[in-house]
Amino acid sequence: MSRDAEVIVLARWSDEVMEPLTQDDPERTWRGRFVPIAGHWGYEFGWALEFEKMRARKGLLRHLESLPWPHPHTVQVLLRDQDDDCFGLWMFQEGRLVEVTIPRTERFHQPAPPNEDFEPDPGMLLRTDQNTALPEQTPEPRRDTRSPW
Predict the structure, then answer these.
(1) Distance (Å, rounded) from C-alpha 12 to C-alpha 71?
(2) pLDDT at residue 118, as a whole number
C-alpha cells in the first residue's frame, strides 16, 4: 500500500550510531536509508528519510530504540505521515521512543482493522486551532495497538 511519510532524526554526537543507517540493509525490518543533514559548517546534526510504502517503515522506532545513543536525552524523531498537518515528535522516556504531545494538535485514530492482515494505521496528527471540523476520535479500546512505525 502506498503511503508517503518523512522521518527526521536529530541527535547530538551520533554520527557513528547513524552511519550504518545511511546504507541499505536487507536484514532490517524497515527499508531505506537516512541521508545526513549538514549544517552551515558541515557538521551533521540530523538525518532524513522518506518512505513511500507502509510496509517499508515497520519496526523503525523499535530499531532506533535499540541503538547505543551516546546522549539519548538529545534524540528527537520527527515523523510526518501523508495525512498529518505537521510533524509529530517522539523522544526517549524510560528507554522507549514515545510520542510527545504538541500543543494545539491531536492524533486521531481509525478503528482497528478486522484482523492483522491489514497494516497498522498511524492515524492523523491534526492541528486543532485551524477552525476546521475535526474527525470523531475513536475510543481507545477500539484502536489498533500495533505500532505502524
Answers:
(1) 7
(2) 85
pLDDT value of residue 54: 66
End-to-end CA distance of the chain: 15
Q: Which three cell numbers stand for residue 20?
A: 550504518
- Quickly tell me which residue has 502506498 as its cell: 2
Q: What is the reported pTM?
A: 0.90
Distance of alpha carbon 86 from alpha carbon 83, whole angstroms:
9
So what's the pLDDT on residue 1? 46
Whether residue 148 lies inside any domain: the answer is no
Residues in the chain with pLDDT < 50?
1
Residue 149 lies in a domain: no
Q: How many domains does the chain have?
A: 1
Long-range pairs for 72-75: beta carbons < 8 A, 24 or more residues apart = 74/10, 74/11, 74/12, 74/13, 74/14, 75/9, 75/10, 75/11, 75/14
